[in-house]
Amino acid sequence: MGCRYKVRLPFGVASVRPYAILHALPQSDGVLMVRRDGVMTKDDRPDEAGEGIFAEKLNKKFELMFATESVYVFMRVYCLLVSLLNNTREHVATVGPTKDPRDSYCVPAPVEEVREKRPRPIADFPGAILMLTEVVSRKVEMKEYETYCRRVCKSKVHQMVVLPKLIDKCTDALLNVAKEDALLPLFDYCLHREMDPVQLRSLCFSVTPDASYRIQYDNSTGHMFFAFLPGGERLFTVPQDEGSMQEDDEEDEMKDAEETLGTNDNDCDGDGDDYDANKASPPSKKAKLT
After folding, report:
1. Structural domain span for residue 165
2. I need a surface site. Which of 201, 217, 240, 290 has the fewest CB within 10 A?
3. pLDDT tens-digit map of 211-223
4. Any residues with CB less than 8 A from the CB of 261 and at least 6 apart, and which?
C-alpha cells in the first residue's frame, strides 16, 4: 500500500497518497500531470492547442469541466439531491418541527415500557438525516420513514419522501461514471483554472471523444451551469455580435445554394437532345416563334 497521509475532511477521514498531493499543486514549469492507467504521468500536449482568435482564459471564480454524459447525469441528480436537502433544512429551521400527537396520548405502563426500548429520533433536520440513512440501508421501512417525515414538517413530506429513491438514482449514476473510467483524467486537466477553455476542451477530447458536456461552477454565487456542445461544434469564449452571426448564416445559405446548383448542373450534362425551351422557362418569358 505504501505511505499515506491521514487527512480529516468535512465528511470524514481519508487516506491520501503523497503523489496525489504533489501533483494536485501547480507546477512551476507549467507541466500538467494526468492520470494514465492509475499512474500520474507528464502530459505531452502541443503548446498551440486551442490558440487562436477564440482563445480566452476563464475568470478565476469559475471552475470548468468538459465531461461525458454519465458525469452530466450524475451531476444533475446530485445537484437535485443537494437542493432538496438544503431546502428542507432551511424550511425546518424556519418553521420548526411539527408537534407529535402521540405525545398527548395516555399510554398504559406496560406498553410505554416497550415503546421506550425503541428510541425515536428527534423531529428535526439531523434526525431526518439519521432516518434517511437507516432507510437507505434498509433498516427502516418506507412507511415508518414517511410517518416520521410528517412529524418533522407536514408541508415538505412529498419532498422528503422522494429522497431515498433519489439517492438510489444517484448511486446508479455514480456507478456508471466509475464503469466509464474517464472522470479522473478529465478532472486532472480541469484542475488547472488558468487555461483557455478551447484548449481545455481539446485536451478533454483527447481523453474521450464523448466529452461533449460543459459543466461550469460559479464560486461566487454557488450556481452550476450545464451545456451540450458536440465535438463538431465550435466553442465561443467571447460574445458574438448579431452582424457576424448573420454573415455566418448567409455564408451557410450560399454554400447550400451552390451545392444545390451544382447538383442541378450535373443533371443537365449531356448532348442536350432532351432539352426543351418551353419547359425550361416560365410561360411569361418564353421566346415567341415567328
Report:
1. 75-172
2. 290
3. 999 999 988 888 8
4. none
